[in-house]
Design goal:
Blueprint (H helix, E strand, L loop, with lengths): L14 H36 L10 H33 L7 H38 L26 H33 L6
Helix pairs in contact: 1-2, 1-4, 2-3, 2-4, 3-4
Length: 203
């Protein structure tokens, strides 16, 4: 059987270089995504499981919860998938366990698709949260913006505050989650480029 990773072009990366890329970028993606995902995961766990229900936030609550679960599962899966890249790299080094090229490409496309799904969920949640805050701001009566002013002598906003610290933490969490998904997409695309540039007889 002809090895699908046999080089036919000296300028193309050899299998050992590709294996090193999988291990190196897999660990980079794993740790960077893990760090970026700390805030989103903790916030989503708090919102979905620990935060008491609020009657004032029922308009889009069901959709936000569904998208929140999507973000949470996508983040956890993509972190695991980056670690899986390191395992693929180890298998590529072993001729007896080396997976076919088509299987490696399939694994990379799975990583790209799941990261894209996670990013779409984050963007939709962002639209809902920011859109809700914008709507509240635009429907304020004249002079109503004063309720955004902190109460003198305290660090707590007035009871009628539209923008709360929790809203800002949620926006920060969305940005962190989006950055994590971007890292996952970048790692997968780079590895896909490396594997695709490897000259072989496998179509």
């Amino acid at each position: 059987m002809v090895d699908p990773y046999t080089n036919y072009d000296s300028n193309s990366p050899n299998v050992h270089e590709i294996a090193q890329d999988f291990r190196r970028l897999g660990y980079v993606g794993f740790w960077v995504q893990s760090i970026l995902a700390i805030i989103p995961i903790l916030l989503l766990i708090f919102v979905l499981f620990l935060r008491p229900a609020s009657p004032s936030n029922t308009n889009n609550s069901a959709l936000v919860i569904v998208l929140g679960y999507g973000c949470l599962f996508a983040l956890i899966f993509t972190i695991y998938w980056c670690f899986r890249y390191t395992q693929i790299g180890s298998k590529l080094e072993d001729p007896n366990e080396r997976p076919p090229k088509v299987e490696v490409v399939h694994a990379l496309w799975i990583g790209i698709v799941i990261n894209l799904i996670g990013m779409i969920c984050v963007i939709l949640v962002g639209f809902l949260i920011v859109g809700t805050l914008l709507y509240r701001m635009l429907t304020l009566p004249p002079g109503g913006s004063k309720i955004l002013t902190p109460t003198p002598g305290t660090t707590v906003l007035n009871p009628g505050s539209i923008v709360t610290p929790f809203n800002l933490i949620a926006i920060q969490a969305m940005l962190s989650a989006m950055a994590a998904e971007v890292i996952g997409i970048a790692v997968s695309l780079w590895l896909l480029t490396r594997v695709s540039s490897h000259q072989s007889n496998l179509k």
